[in-house]
Design brief:
It contains three helices and no strands. By secondary structure, the chain is an all-alpha fold. The chain has one domain: IscX-like (Arc Repressor Mutant, subunit A), CATH 1.10.10. Helix 1 packs across helix 3 (54-69). The chain is globular and about 30 Å long.
Length: 70
């Protein structure tokens, strides 16, 4: 697993860690609030949880789905 600090603007890196951490999750069932919790609970997440918005979470979720389906 990546040891680099994760920040909201590093969506690809966040997605890669989510794939490693939750390999069997049904992404279609993940909403933005659940995604938010999953990300801020990652051990190497270092950003301010309060600065995120739905746009960032939706971008991460879309990128995760695209990586998952490829």
């Amino acid at each position: 697993m990546s040891e680099n600090a994760l920040y909201w603007d590093a969506s690809y890196e966040i997605v890669m860690v989510l794939i490693e951490t939750y390999p069997k999750i049904e992404i279609e069932d993940v909403g933005t609030q659940q995604l938010y919790q999953m990300i801020i609970e990652l051990p190497n997440f270092a950003d301010d949880p309060a600065v995120v918005n739905d746009g960032i979470l939706n971008d991460i979720l879309r990128e995760w789905y695209e990586e998952y389906t490829n």
